[in-house]
User: Fold DUF2480 family protein from Zobellia uliginosa.
Amino acid sequence: MSDEIINRVAESKLVTFNLEDYYVQGRRVLFDISNWLFEGLLLKEKDFRSRAAEHDWSQYQDAYVALHCSTDAIVPGWAYMLLATHLHPFAKKCVQGSLEDLETVLYTETLSNLEISEFKDKMVIIKGCSNKPVPSNAYLLATSKLQSVVKSLMYGEACSSVPLYKRK
Assistant:
């Protein structure tokens, strides 16, 4: 019996798919419109339009912006649309929702355009841990995209993966 330690993970044919590799770089901004509402709850159109016209939108140059309201106010859809028209010349992307919603949109765009032929007939592990804000939906999108070409699909790390799919 040999005393040599063999790293079976390193020798395996597993391919790791790390969603962090597809993270879109850039500044994220959560824009809370509740500050522009009367008592944080009521949208007065004239005041709202005035605030939007006077606001310095250039500060969002090349940023990814999520528009949301942190109060229980009922905000008409046109209010977000109006802000989007002001952001359009500056921001790279503008969505209505949370920062997680913004990340989901960015990952959806990135993964939908991803060339996956390199994963054809491979045993792939979608890496589970990340240091960047990878939304839960990105894992579902990756699973759906990869399942059409891989031999098998797992989640986690090579040393402790959870099997998800195996082609018959």
Observations:
- The chain has five helices and seven strands.
- The CA atoms of residues 33 and 83 lie 9 Å apart.
- The helical segments are 8-11, 45-54, 77-87, 99-112, 136-147.
